[in-house]
Amino acid sequence: MPKPIKHTQPGYRRPLLAGLLAALVLCIALPVEAQQTLRIGYQKSSTLITLLKTRGTLEKALAPQDVTVTWHEFPSGLPLLEALNVGNVDISADVADTVPIFAQAAQARLTYFAQEAASPSAQAIIVHKDSPVQQLSDLKGKKVAVTKAAGSHYLLIAALKKAGLAFSDIQPAYLSPADTTAARPSKTTRWTPGSPGNPS
Length: 200
Fold this sequence. Notes:
alpha/beta, D-Maltodextrin-Binding Protein, domain 2, three-stranded parallel beta sheet, 7 helices, elongated, Aliphatic sulfonate ABC transporter periplasmic substrate-binding protein
C-alpha cells in the first residue's frame, strides 16, 4: 500500500453547504422571469453537494418559485471555474482554495460567497511503501504527479518550500484528475492526489 509523507496543506477550505443555500436565497428573490433555471457546477468529491443533489433538496425548495435546477459535473475545479467565468454555469459549488487563485490570475471574475473550515488531512503526498523517499527533502530531483492548478498543486509547492526546495528542484508530471486517480506510485514517482474521489 502507498504511504503518505506527512505534510498537510494549511488553510485548506471548501465552501459551506449553508453558504450555498444562502446564495440560492438571492436567486429565489429574483423575479421568476430572470431565473428560470439554476445551473450548478460541482465535483463528485464534494460529499455535501452530492448529498444535496441526491436528496433533491434544492429542487424541492425552488419548485414553488418555478425555478428548476440542473447539475453539471466537472472533473476538477479549474474547468469548473472556467465554465463559471464564461457563463456556462451559475454557481460553482465546492472547489479547493487555490483553484480560484489560479483562475483569477487568468483574469476570471469571481465572487466568493462561503467557505468551510480547514481540512488539513484532505490531501497528502503519497509514495510507494518501498520508496527511498522518506522525507520531504528526498523529493529533490524526483518526478511528482500532480494536477495542475488544483489544491494538490499548492500542497506540493508548500511542502517543497517547507523542505527548503524550489519547485524547479523536482520534475512535475501534470496529469488530469482521472489520470492522477488511476495512477499508482512507483519507486521513482511520487503522487500528490487531491481529496478522495477527485483531486480538485
